[in-house]
Amino acid sequence: MSLLDQLLEDLSLEGFELRQVVAGMSEAGWREPTPAEGWDVAAQIAHLAWTDEAALAATEWVAGDATAWDELVTEALGDPEGFVDKSALALATMPATELLEHWDGVRGELAGALANVPDGKKLPWFGPPMSPASMATARFMETWAHGLDVREALGLTYEPTDRIKHVCHLGTRTRDFAYGVHGLTPPGSPFRVSLTAPSGEQWEWGPEDAAESVRGPAYDFARLVTQRIHRDDTALEATGDEAERWLTIAQAFAGPAGGGRPKK
Prior knowledge:
Blueprint: H1 3-22, H2 27-30, H3 41-62, H4 67-78, H5 83-91, H6 96-115, H7 132-153, H8 165-173, H9 175-181, E1 192-196, E2 202-205, E3 213-217, H10 218-225, E4 237-239, H11 241-249
Parallel strand pairs: 1-3
Antiparallel strand pairs: 1-2, 3-4
């Protein structure tokens, strides 16, 4: 199985499990507030649906139809900071059954479209162009993170799986980006990141002889880089001042620096 095939399979599973959480809920359940300020459950699902639509438009651009993508770019130019959230919140006003049906449709289309992107082609995006594998990783990360918010809103527990390796990988790859969005200069040398997977497997990134390092539970790291947990509420251990600073600013998602979660 190729990396892209594995990513798409894991993305499908993560989306399906989240779908099972919200399917059959009352309209009141969809309006439950989540830990993201101003976002209810419907807004979380709507954000996923909208971004899946945007990614689908990017695949259409690669295939030669720029119509949908050009419309998105025009909209973004009119409100660079707020157009994504405004679009998602507008979508969240749909009746719950229609919103769920819409998300089902676009995420299913996106999986097939990403699988069919020609080798070597990259997708346009609101930052640097992305490979299909990078897009699938980003979609997995966001689906997983929003799924945490939805479950927390509904009082449900979440049992992490080794699928979170995709989130951890993205978290390590975005280290320098996190420094940049905070107006900081990234360190010149890579860190060693050693994480224990939910299964007990050990995951490693970076050189073994790195002067600074991070180690601990992969679940904590994945939640930290998606800003679903405060640094002080994790069991992560940092060696070195810069490694510690990174853990206070880490973010695996695009856009401006997030405010993170308060300490419990």
